[in-house]
Design goal:
Elements (H helix, E strand, L loop, with lengths): L2 H27 L3 H12 L7 H9 L20 E4 L2 E3 L2 H11 L6 E5 L5 H7 L4 E6 L2 H13 L5 E5 L12 E6 L8 H5 L1 E11 L4 E8 L5 E9 L16 H5 L5
Parallel strand pairs: 3-4, 3-6, 4-5, 6-7
Antiparallel strand pairs: 1-2, 7-8, 8-9
Length: 255
């Protein structure tokens, strides 16, 4: 074997070792990467979420960092998970679907009601200018704020308070999203939505439906229901009595 061929063989072997080492480093830095890719392909894209920006956001945010340590192995399963205080982190598909329905864009300001672990806020923060999020459970609000700060989501501000009141000092918002289910959409939140804005929320008691509210330029609103869902009830001192509404139960829905 010539010296040149021998050196080329050594370089090839060295390159293989280096690339293999880089692969191991990447895998150890993000051990859930393959699980996250499977989640996107099998749970989200396969069910009709097609927005490239939403899929990229779901790909970029590490869901396992937003669940309790004992549930990290299940972070990318097709289901919600408990996060404490009788609250949950939503099923990945629902997070992606609600984000797509919200139609977020750079330059927008979003109000979220129900911070929870901060996962939905983190997803939105990669897509919009600013996320203002309200959590009624102090322990969850504080832990989410610290988690978001530590992970570098600097354009998210967390307030501990009653979501039924919204955030009047910062209104109006381009988009509003609720991650807990009120009996009906609070008028206060509709008022805090900009003309031309979109609100997405689970709505109802017993039977809940994912609902999209479009607010026209003239301030008029239209609502459409997307599919049945199960969310924790929206809490608040100003919450109305949770009585089922007959028109929800009597309506026809596609799913």
């Amino acid at each position: 074997m010539s010296e040149r061929r021998r050196n080329r063989g050594s370089l090839n072997a060295f390159g293989t070792v280096v690339l293999f080492g880089v692969g191991l480093a990447l895998c150890s830095d993000d051990p859930f990467r393959s699980a996250r890719e499977r989640m996107i392909a099998e749970q989200i894209e396969a069910r009709g979420v097609t927005s490239a920006t939403v899929l990229q956001a779901m790909r970029s945010v590490r869901r396992e960092l937003f669940v309790p340590d004992e549930f990290r192995a299940y972070a990318y399963g097709d289901h919600p998970l408990p996060i404490g205080s009788e609250q949950t982190i939503s099923q990945p598909f629902i997070v992606a679907l609600m984000t797509q329905l919200l139609a977020p864009a750079h330059g927008q300001r979003v109000l979220e009601i129900g911070t929870g672990s901060g996962y939905q806020a983190a997803i939105l923060s990669t897509l919009v200018k600013e996320v203002d999020t309200i959590e009624i459970v102090p322990e969850l609000g504080r832990s989410a704020a610290e988690r978001l700060r530590r992970l570098g989501y600097a354009n998210v501000q967390v307030r501990i308070g009653d979501g039924y009141l919204g955030w009047p000092e910062k209104a109006p918002f381009d988009r509003i999203i609720l991650t807990a289910s009120p009996p009906e959409i609070p008028t206060v939140l509709i008022d805090q939505l900009k003309s031309g804005g979109i609100l997405v929320a689970p709505v109802g008691v017993g039977m809940q439906f994912l609902t999209v509210v479009d607010k026209a330029k003239d301030g008029k609103t239209t609502m459409r229901s997307v599919l049945p869902v199960v969310f924790v009830p929206m809490k608040g001192a100003t919450a109305p009595l949770r009585k089922p509404r007959a028109e929800w139960a009597a309506s026809r829905f596609p799913f």
